[in-house]
Structure formats: structure tokens, C-alpha cells
Structure of Glutamyl-tRNA(Gln) amidotransferase subunit A:
Amino acid sequence: VTRAHLDRIAAEDGALGAYLFVDDDAALARAAEIDASGAAGTGLAGIPVALKDVFVTEGVPTTSGSRILEGWRPPYSATVATRLQEAGTVLLGKTNMDEFAMGSSTENSAYRPTRNPWDHDRIPGGSSGGSSAAVAGRLAPLALGTDTGGSIRQPAAVTGLVGHKPTYGSVSRYGLIAFSSSLDQAGPMARTVMDAALLHEAIGGHDPRDSTSIDAPVPTVVEAARRGATGDLAGLRVGVVRELGGEGAREGYEQGVLDRFAEAVALLEAAGAEVREVTCPSFGLALPAYYLIAPSEASSNLARFEGMRFGIRVGDDGSRDVDEVMALTREQGFGPEVKRRIILGTYALSAGYYDAYYGQAQKVRTLITRDFTAAFDGGVDVLVSPTSPTVAWSIGARVDDPLAMYAADLCTLPASLAGVPAISVPCGLSDGLPVGLQVMAPALADDRCYRVAAAVE
Ligand code: GLN
């Protein structure tokens, strides 16, 4: 199985650009080890998996899509990588991504863009676009991504995959290169709901090395996927979010996406679910709140990249002092979007502006969380919306327009800010390109996402 995928990578990845690093010999040696152990065939043993390059992997180059980490080989592995190792999976390689996970198209990678296997002139989504292209293009059966504001769900949606952002705190962030720590969450990307569920159970669960890790059992998502696959949703109460593509909030949504969404809702009803419209008045403020909170946390997290401890160092020839070397390293090591976020975040956090920007954004975050609580306490089990307002757009179409790029996150940001689980599952095509249905559930009720997704699949 590993060899078959390495052959696919050799044949296709020149065009796709899904991977930043592949070591055939190491992967084949690992596969041979699993074969010899006799474990292959139990659970995920022997299954190759691709990891987004945001996860540190001991001895294996890890860049987070940035020049500033070029050549860095971490001395330790992320908890999720260790858990996958323990489950007997084979690491196929590290996948391309927007630099430090900032973006929605993978065009912000410092190395190269990734293409959508459905149409090579289109983006594969982002920031986990290397993972989505690898799985959708059959260059990996499974991949891990990370989702801060939509970076698992949106690339899954635009490449026809299942992608799940677990409850914040339910999958370890240890060894995940931090973008926005209060939002970052790792999760599975796969071609079926059951594949995603199996991968989720392998990586989830408490980790004492992550201070925000929840000490609770992993939800039984495999069982939920099995239950949902019967197609019976009798008794399930579904809320259609008015503010996310519902009546009166359709600006920016493609008609084909709205049509597929309406059909998916009809399908849920046909499966026995009770569907009603729900209003979440603060969801419309998620975008501005996110683009203050995430850059603020990024400006703090990225301070560690100063050219001394990791990756590249520029201008250290004895003629400059340490501040000049740090400045030169950052000037050349960071790309334009990363610089934009650092500047935005530093500004929003500065004395005198904190209350006006960051403080306000945190209040909006609380209001969004309350909208979810009101909906779930008010009698719905899950909320649904389109995952992305549009299908995959053409490469280059939004690179010069950051606000157009940010608009791709319209539907995914509320669940990110509230820390609740959300899954994207394919729900048909528009103009020959995949559309995703998003299913959101209360914290720690990830199993509901899988149940509904399996019924739609
Ligand atoms: N597109 C969003 C951003 O650029 C989300 C990215 C993510 O989830 N990592 O910040």
C-alpha cells in the first residue's frame, strides 16, 4: 500500500504540489517493519498517512510552509504524530500549506502553490491544501490537517473530502506549530466519514503536555459513523443557521452552493430529522472578530522565530548586532501575509488600542458562543450550513485581495471562535466542482457530526 502511494506521488506530485517532503526509503522501511510485526490489518496498522507540515516530526524536516524554518529538523514529535506511530501507521510525507497556516488557498506557501486534483487551474483550499490535494488526488489515503478558522473544513469541502475540526482541546496541540493557540485544532481529512472517524479516534484524547487539553474520553465517533450510515436520523433536531446562507444572508454565496445545501437539508429531513431555522445574530461578526484575535495571537506566537533557535539566520557575518540579524532574518524569512498578520496583531494589542480592538473582539467571541448555547439549549442537536460560500476558485484570483481571501472563512469561523466541533461532508457538485455541507455540534458532541455526515454521504 505504501509503495502504491509513493508511485502515485512520483507520478502526480510534480503537477499537484501536495507534498513538501517525502522520504521513500524511510516510508518503505517503516512499512516493512509493520509487515514483519504481523500487525498490519488491525486498526490503522500499515496504513500510510500524510501530515500537514505544521506538525513537528522528529528528524523529519518541518517548515510550517515558511522559509524561516527551512532546513529545520525538530528534535521531537507532535503528540498526534507519536500516536499515529503507535497505531502502526506509515508516515508518507509532510504536506504543503499556507505559511504558518495563514490563508485559504495554499498560495501563501513559501515553497509552491498546490493545485486542486479536480481542476489543476484551481486552488485546493487552505491552509491544509497539501493534505486535501494529497487525499483527493489519491496520493495518500488519510491526512491530518489543522483548523484555526476553517483550514480543515474548507479544503475538504472544495476537494470533495470529509474534514473534521474536533472540539477545541480534544486533540493535543503539543508539537503543532502555533498560529492562534486559542483556536488551533488538529483533525482528520479523509475520503469517507468512517476513514475520518478511525483517524480521529487514533489521535484524540487527553495529553498532559498540552495545558488546554480536555481530560475526557474521546467521543465514540466510529460508532456514530456506523450508526449514521444506516441513513436513519429519526428524532434528530437540525437547525439551519439563518445567518449562514439562510434567508436574507446570501451575499457572497454562489447559487450552486445554496442549491446543493438546500438539497442536503431536504435529505436530512427525508432521513427523519426534524429541521427548523435558527437565528444566530452574532455570527455575522465572526469574520472581523477572528481577524483581530487570530493575528493578535500570531503576533505573539511568531516572536519565537528570530533566527537564533530555529531555521535560517540571515546576515550573521560579524558586521551586525543581534537586532539587525533578527530583523534581516524576519524580513527574508517571513512572507507578505505573515508580515501583515504580525503588524495587524501587534497594532491591535498595543496600549491604547487593546480595548477598542482586541477587547471588543473577545466580547464578540463570547456573543457567538452564546448564540451556539442558545441554539443547542433551545432545542436543536446540530446546526448546519454550507462549509464554504463558493466552490474552488481559480489560482491567482484572490492573491492580491486579502479581504476576498478572508471571505472564504465566512461559514467556518463561528465554530472556531466557540471551540465547538464541526465537520464538512461532500453534498454534491456545482459546475463539476465539490460542495461541502457543514455540521456543527456542542462541545464534546463530535459524535453527532459524524452521525449526520455519515447519513448524508
Ligand atoms: N483562512 C483563515 C486564515 O487565514 C483560517 C486559516 C486556518 O484555519 N489555519 O486565518
